[in-house]
Design brief:
Shape: elongated
Largest sheet: 6 strands, mixed
Helix content: 40-55%
Structural class: alpha/beta
Distance between the termini: 40 Å
Length: about 290
């Protein structure tokens, strides 16, 4: 279990090593073609040192990788922008967002699917502006109005992944407490629940409610997010949020355990159809 940047270096290195192998090159041959010493290739592949985006581009050229989406994903893992060298939108908020949050956004922007268990608040990708502000105010009591405005702006910008082509596929299991906790007052909560009903009807969104009547369940240990990537499952990662940081789990056994946990929660939760009715009922009573 490590912090995001270390995990990303190792994942990037592992993927570059696999691409080198597919290209039929030894690390020494790759280094020679790149004009480097072999030790540099080894350090990159083991994730023991950071790697510049320019070096990633050079290796991808050496390995003959032309898949644009794969190249962009690997460049994001290196902390870069896109192939044209343009930074992604969250780079404009570097002075406001902590590195762990920027790391989360970069993964979210490139993932093909996201599975999440939420036990306290509505998922950020489905929050209304008013709800997002109320949650942010509660988490950052001393934040200025300007900073609150910026963080809400970022939260809303993140939601563009659901409107991308192709969109992020979001599967969320929501504990009933998420729907019952009155965040921002009755009016804010009523509009938020209406937004959830709208989101539940989107083809790329699957919402399930885990009612109180389900009793104790494997999710009582806390919320989590699983990011999946269509180009390579080796980049899949579990993210656990804490008050001051995020932890990333990348081992196959961790991914398997959390995937099985999510599947079990999905079985115990209401079906998407019944969940929609449940949310609509909660909205009517809000």
């Amino acid at each position: 279990m490590q912090h995001g940047p270390a995990v990303r270096r190792r994942k990037l290195g592992a993927e570059l090593r696999a691409l080198r192998t597919s290209a039929g090159l030894t690390s020494g041959e790759a280094a020679r073609l790149a004009g480097w010493h072999q030790s540099k290739v080894s350090r990159i592949e083991t994730g023991t040192s950071g790697v510049k985006p320019a070096d990633v581009r050079l290796l991808l050229d050496v390995y003959g990788v032309t898949d644009r989406q794969l190249r962009e994903l690997l460049l994001v893992l290196s902390g870069s922008g896109d192939e044209a060298g343009r930074h992604h939108w969250w780079h404009a908020y570097r002075g406001v967002l902590p590195p762990t949050y920027r790391d989360f956004i970069s993964l979210e922007s490139q993932a093909s699917a996201m599975r999440t268990l939420e036990t306290t608040v509505i998922p950020g990708l489905l929050q209304t502006p008013e709800y997002a502000r109320a949650v942010t105010e509660a988490a950052l009591e001393d934040a200025s109005e300007e900073r609150l405005d910026t963080l809400v702006e970022v939260r809303l910008a993140r939601q563009d992944v659901l409107r991308a082509s192709p969109p992020l596929e979001l599967s969320a299991v929501l504990d009933e407490a998420v729907l019952r906790r009155e965040v921002g007052g009755p009016g804010v909560m009523a509009r938020q629940l209406e937004r959830l009903v709208e989101a539940a009807r989107l083809p790329q969104v699957r919402l399930q409610v885990l009612p109180f009547t389900a009793g104790a369940h494997i999710g009582v240990t806390g919320p989590f997010v699983i990011f999946s990537f269509s180009r390579t499952s080796d980049l899949d990662v579990v993210v656990l949020d804490h008050l001051t940081s995020s932890l990333h789990l990348e081992r196959k056994e961790d991914l398997r355990a959390f995937s099985e946990a999510f599947n079990a929660l999905s079985v115990h939760a209401l079906s998407p159809e019944d969940s929609l009715d449940f949310i609509a009922g909660a909205a009517a009573g809000a």
